[in-house]
Structures are given as C-alpha cells and as structure tokens.
Amino acid sequence: MEIYYVIFGMLALLSVFGLIVGVSNDACNFLNSSIGCRAGTYNQAVAVASIGVLLGACFSSGMMSVARNGVMEPAMFTFHEVMVLYLAVMVGNIILLDTFNTLGLPTSTTVSLVFSLLGASIGMAIYTSGEFFTCPLADYINEERCFKMVIAIFASVAIAFTVGSIVMWISRLIFSFRFQKIYRYIGPLWCGLAFTAISYFIIFKGLKGSVFKDDIQALIDAGLTAPIMAVAAVFWVLFSALLQYVCKINTLRIAVLAGTGSLALAFAGNDMVNFIGVFMAAKDALFDPAVTSANVHTLKMGDILAGDGAAASVYYLVGAGLIMVSALFLSKKARKVTETELKLSSANTGKERFGSSQPARIIVRSAINTSRFIVSITPKPIAAFVSRRFRPLTPEEETGANYDMIRASVNLTIAALLISVGTDLGLPLSTTYVIFMVSMGSSLADRAWGRDSAVYRITGVLTVIAGWLLTGVAACLAALVVAMVMAYGGTWGMIAMLIIAAILLIKSTFFAHEDKQEIHLIDVTKDASVHEFATSAAGRLGRMIGIYKATVKALLEEDLDDLKRLRKKGRSIKRDLEVLRENEVLPTLPTIPAALADRGQLIFRITEISLITCERLMSLVKASYNHIDNFHAGLTKEQAHDLLALTEKIGRFYPNLIDMLKAGNYAGIKAMLETTEKLSDDFADCITRHLMHSAANETDMRNGILYLTLLNETRAMVSHGFALITRIRELYES
Hints:
Blueprint: H1 2-37, H2 42-59, H3 65-70, H4 79-103, H5 109-129, H6 143-175, H7 180-206, H8 213-221, H9 225-246, H10 251-271, H11 273-286, H12 289-292, H13 314-330, H14 332-345, H15 358-377, H16 380-389, H17 405-424, H18 431-445, H19 454-510, H20 527-556, H21 560-588, H22 597-629, H23 637-652, H24 657-663, H25 666-676, H26 679-695, H27 701-733
C-alpha cells in the first residue's frame, strides 16, 4: 500500500500546481472587465476577486462527481487502475494548462479536466481489457457526459458571441460613447438591473453547487425564483438611486467590481473541482475501509466511487482558496492571459499581437459588404441617428482605458446571465468560453474593431477558439499517453512521467524567457535618445558589413557550416529590426510633436533602409549557402579575385564611422561617401569581365548565376548602406 500513499502525496502536490496554473488561466475570466475599463487598478481588481474566490471556496460543497464517475465507469476499474488513472490525469492536465498559459491563450479548465479524464480512462481501459483496437470503450466510458461537453463548446461560443453583440449594440444605441448625460437619468435603472442579474448569478449559479444547494433548489422547486428576483430588482434600483443621487458615488464602478467578485465566487465555488476534484476522489478511494482489507488489484471501485461522495472538509476548501488567491497576486502568466483578451477587445490601435489569416479576411470582407447593404436600405434619418450614437470619442475625450464602464458592465452582466440560464437548461457551459466570447461580441458591436484592426482581431479570436477546440483533443491524447506509460511501465513509468512533468513546470516557471514584445517609445525630444538610436543603427550596419565580408570568405573556402552560422546571424538582425519597427518606431511616430516631425521621418527612414539593406544581405547569404549546399563548384579564380577586391573596398568605408558621428566629424563622413561612390564603376567592370568570359564559355552557368547575384545584391546593399549613413548623419545633425 505504500506506493499508493506516495501516489496520493503526488496528487496533493500536483493539485497545488493545478490550482496555481488553473487560476493563472482563468483569472482573465473575472478580471478583464474591471481592468479594461479601469474601474480599479490591477491589484484592486485582484483584491475584489480574491474576496469572491475565498467566499466561493468556503461555500463550495466539494462534490466531486466529475472526477468520481462523470467520465469513467468506476465499476470497470480496480483500485490500482483508478489511482494510476488519477495520477495520469493530473500530470497531463497540468502540462496542458501550463502550455496554454505560457502561450498566453485562455482555455477551459473544465474541458481540460474532462478530456484528460477521458484520455486517461481510454488508456486504462486498453490496459485493463488487453485489447487495443477492439477495446469495448462503451463499457468503460460515460459517453453521454462526453457528448454534452462537445456540444457545450460549440453552443457556448455561438450563443455568447451573438447575445453579447446584440445587447452591446442596443446599450450603445441608448447611451452612446458620451454616456454621462443620459446616465444621470437612467443610471439607477441600469445598475439596478445589473445588480439584479449579478444577484441571480450568485444565488442560482454561484452557490448552486455549494453547501446551500438544497436550500436553493427548494426555492426553485417552490416557484419563488421570479418573486425573489422582482423584489431584488426593486431593492437594487432604489439602492442604486441612493448611491448615485445622495451619496454621489459612481455606481457603474461598483457594478463592475461587484460583477468581478461574483464571477470569481462562482469560479471558486464550482470550478475548483477541476483542480482538487481528482485529489479528493483519490482520498475517498484510498481511505475507504474496503480498500485496506482487499486486494487492490482486484477490488472494483463501483460502490466506493458511486454518487457525489462526501462533502470535502472546510480545511481543504479554505486551503485551496488561499492558494488560488496567492496565485492571483503573484502569477505573471495571469497577467499575460489577461493581456490577450484586452488587446483583442480594445479600440486602441498599435501593434497587433496576431497576424492576418485568409478566414479572417473573408469574414471582414463579408461583414463590410453586409454593412454597406444594410446602410443602403436603411432610411437616412435612422442611419444618421445610429451614426451619431456610435460616433467615437475624440483623442481629447479618451481616457486611455481599453473600453468604458458601459461595455464592462454589459460583459459581466450578460456573461452572468448566460451562465445562469445555461445551468438551468442543463447545458454545461464553460465560464471561459462564455466570458471571452461575450467580450469579443461586445467589442465587435462597439466598433472597437475598425478596418485597420478587424482582420487581426478576428484572427486572434479564431486562434483562441481553435485553441479551445484543440484543448479537448490535446488533453485526451496527453492523458492517454501518460496513462499507458504509467500502466505498462509500472513504478518506473510513473517516475518517468513525474520527472518530465516536473522538468517542464520548473522550466516554465523559473527559466521562461522574458517577453521581448513590449512597447518602448523613443523620446525624440532628447538628443541623447536620438543619438543612441542613430548609433545603434550605425552599429547594426557595421554588423551587416561584417557578415558580408565573412560570407565572401566562407563562400570562397566553401565552408558550409560558416555560411549556415552567418545566415542565422543575418536572420537575427532582421528579427531585431522588425521588432524595433513594430514595438518602438511605429508606436513613437503618432506621439512626435509637429515641431520635431523631421526627426520622426528620419527615424522611420533609417529603420526602413536598415531592413532593406538586411534583406539584400540575406539574399546574398542565402544564394551562397544554397550554392555550396548543393555541391556546386566554387567561383573561378578571376571571379574570386574581383569579388575580394570589391569586398576590401567596401570594408574601408565603415571603420571609425561611429567615432566620426559622435565627434561631429561630418567632413570625414562626406569624404568617405564620395570615395565609395566610385564603386559603381568597379561593379560595372566586374560584370563586363564576367560577360566576356561567359561568351568564351570559360565560366560555368551556375557559377555565373551566383556571381551575378552576388554583384547585384552587393551593389544594392552598398547603395542602401550609403543612404543609411546619410540619414544617420542627418539625424545626428538634427
């Protein structure tokens, strides 16, 4: 039995990691609206969410039916097989969630858990039956529950996006973006309805799986839901009026923060089973009296894991709640997942996290055509009225928030209502799916996705949805593989899988690379910043010339390894330039004062010329590498002589360039450029000599193609290099 206590201990440890990793992923569900509208700082939003998490954890009943018998049929498995199955679920589930968090993509812990259980159950079913292709999975798996989960994925995505779009469009039509004036009159009604929806969500969804579930079910059975909500609506409208008119309190801010707390409460009260459910089910199995007196390899678990099981101890629940609260405050990955949704729902333009895709372009093109058709058939007075209501804020009116509190309250309220209605209908909606898609739907209706950003935002949404759909497949396959390795490998298989999981988690947690995609503006008002930019550009040009000289040398020596290394260095410079352009130069341009517009233009031109110069260099290096890689003959002696002579002349114009710039020795730079401009005649002479040799059939055709490519790309690179030095000098002089 000792091995099972070790497994139980590992399940406890993995549950702690599961709580940390899972909360890092699900934090965006209840934090984004508060952060996006700036109802509070990140820490304030986390503090409110933490209260909701602790209350939800305390109220949670800890019923673990999903892990006990929601997916697998326990009567078909022995105690030994169930313990191995649970260990495989936790290992596979945590690795999967951590991968999604590292990528900054929100996913569903519910789907991850269920499909991990499914995969592990399939793996153990194959092991138990001894049949791989003919295993009777229907005897081992609860097929009905699995089918409901798949349906829930598609249903929740479509419903949440559609309802969020419609409600947000109506809300914006009522309030417009300048909502303060009309809010003075209907604010209490708006917030009263929001508070009522949140109350309904807390009572009939957030606490429905808690220790109060019998009392709540009794109210529902007695038909008292509607009367209770009617009384609550009247109370909350009057309470909101008191706060707004008498206490002069911003009720919208309170509504957003209350919605944040309510979603956090429901998350901890219900979704916590996704993190500790397996551990609690294993505890019930391990400490059941029947297990201690039976053969663990023959004892079936049908009776032991039947039903919901006993309620979890309050100590386990509070401990789990404290771990989740700690993760909320400390997890960097929680912030990264939150940033993904905020960037997709923000109206602010700038660097887009996601690129363009063909499906997104088709969707945008269809949406634009549909919009034009609707406008064409809409009476002009109505179209003009709608246009006025959706007129965006001017730069002077903007607050800098991703969106306003009207949209934030719509996100929270609609998400709460949809989750509540879905629960009442018996549809196992994922909170992640609902909240994310409501936010995306409201962003679309709020015209946050303009023509300049729509393709990229929709690509991002499609990427996230694809990630959700892949979650089930990935979780199932990961857990299946882990379960089979553990089952067939025995103790050594378990140790191997645990070591792999530990390595991945440690690497992800302590050795993750810093995100280099942050925005950094260039302070063009300071000469030191401008000179630093110019010096960096000159230094980058020097590295490109160094790569060019080394490429010629490696080509003549037919050193493939050196060419491969130089190709990698060239790609690195190009990536750095692309990051510089996207994260520093382009975001800086709109912020440059009109008086310094010339500096902004020079900074942009230097970046673009640097990229073009690097592309010419990469074309030259690639041609050289492919030529040697395909075992073609090297250059002739005449070609090598001419190319080396050119290379020597090109290398003369860079040394001491930075020192000249810093010293203001622009006369030296001018003389250097005048000297190197004579290279055009040298290029022409080289091409003429090559063509004469080609006419006499003295040069192989492939060598000729390579040589002409080298000359043309070198001439283009040098030409852009000269232009780059000129712009750098102008930037120093500015």
